[in-house]
Amino acid sequence: MLRYIGKSIASKQSLLNQSTLVMTKNSSFCTTSSMLESKNTSNYQNILTEKRGRVAIITLNRPKALNALSDGLIGEINIAMKQFQDDKDIGSIIITGSEKAFAAGADIKEMEKKTFADAYNGDMLAQWHDLTTIRKPIIAAVNGYALGGGCELAMMCDIIIAGDKAVFGQPEIKLGTIPGCGGTQRLIRAIGKSKAMELILTGNNLNAVDAERAGLVSRVVPAEELINEALKTADKIASYSQVTVSMCKETVNSAYELNLREGIKFERRIFHSTFATHDQKEGMNAFVEKRSPSWLNK
Ligand SMILES: C=C(C)C(=O)SCCNC(=O)CCNC(=O)[C@H](O)C(C)(C)COP(=O)(O)OP(=O)(O)OC[C@H]1O[C@@H](n2cnc3c(N)ncnc32)[C@H](O)[C@@H]1OP(=O)(O)O
């Protein structure tokens, strides 16, 4: 499926389509308004975190710098992600920014004076990739600018939902450098070589509608509806068996690494292994008995 419709859409379809029928019957599914809320009380300087029922939300919070992704900000994202990864009550994670900017890229002021030795010896930007080790589904809810590292951060997530004013781009060429956090690799996989090459070589931006048409984002919603729409999707995913959701995410992501034959075989083996879980028995039995499933591996 990934090879036909792109990762952002494939992840969403794969994770959502498991059982629409079951979801409509599932009493544990809660609407965003009825979900328990708990706001962040920790000492983060650059992000806010909160829980809404089984969904965690990380909000980038450097408004004066348009959420430029400083080392400190990325470090805090990694700490929060790890905490939510370990939190059994959380089933999916949303990462978002402000109405003006998801993130305007890596922090240029922080990078400006670095030498090659600083960059190389410090393995600059390497810590960003920690995000890709998180096994719970991550939705990037993007309003405003997602440029450079901001676009790359969104592409590291599993699903991108865009507000209608969102703007994507890889403007590094204008700064005398190149994308350094997966942009040259992930963008080409998301939208194909010609479009990716044009964006990266010109530094031009892509608006939300064009980003959806190109397959970079799974859907576009009115800017003011972005968080609610992302929450509905995240909440639905979080209501399924967590072990199955993680298997699903891992299998979809394997299409990035494997050729078709290996990928199909890997998928079949993971599919087989779902038959070792309680939740496969429960899900199928609930369908047969016309009742809502009660997942064990929440
Ligand atoms: C991984 C890598 C290598 C990278 O990501 S490199 C960075 C790629 N990103 C970019 O090149 C985008 C840089 N930003 C911009 O082009 C413009 O800020 C935008 C996004 C078009 C918005 O323009 P405006 O609305 O006019 O806002 P603008 O006044 O430029 O920005 C507001 C503040 O945010 C700061 N800012 C914006 N993007 C920043 C960034 N990437 N790094 C550091 N500061 C940034 C900007 O310097 C300004 O600060 P100050 O008020 O102290 O001057």
Automatic annotation (TrEMBL):
<comment type="similarity">
    <text>Belongs to the enoyl-CoA hydratase/isomerase family.</text>
</comment>
<dbReference type="GO" id="GO:0004300">
    <property type="term" value="F:enoyl-CoA hydratase activity"/>
</dbReference>
<dbReference type="InterPro" id="IPR029045">
    <property type="entry name" value="ClpP/crotonase-like_dom_sf"/>
</dbReference>
<dbReference type="GO" id="GO:0005739">
    <property type="term" value="C:mitochondrion"/>
</dbReference>
<keyword id="KW-0276">Fatty acid metabolism</keyword>
<dbReference type="InterPro" id="IPR018376">
    <property type="entry name" value="Enoyl-CoA_hyd/isom_CS"/>
</dbReference>
<keyword id="KW-0456">Lyase</keyword>
<protein>
    <recommendedName>
        <fullName>Probable enoyl-CoA hydratase, mitochondrial</fullName>
        <ecNumber>4.2.1.17</ecNumber>
    </recommendedName>
</protein>
<keyword id="KW-0443">Lipid metabolism</keyword>
<dbReference type="GO" id="GO:0006635">
    <property type="term" value="P:fatty acid beta-oxidation"/>
</dbReference>
<dbReference type="InterPro" id="IPR001753">
    <property type="entry name" value="Enoyl-CoA_hydra/iso"/>
</dbReference>
<dbReference type="InterPro" id="IPR014748">
    <property type="entry name" value="Enoyl-CoA_hydra_C"/>
</dbReference>
<dbReference type="Pfam" id="PF00378">
    <property type="entry name" value="ECH_1"/>
</dbReference>
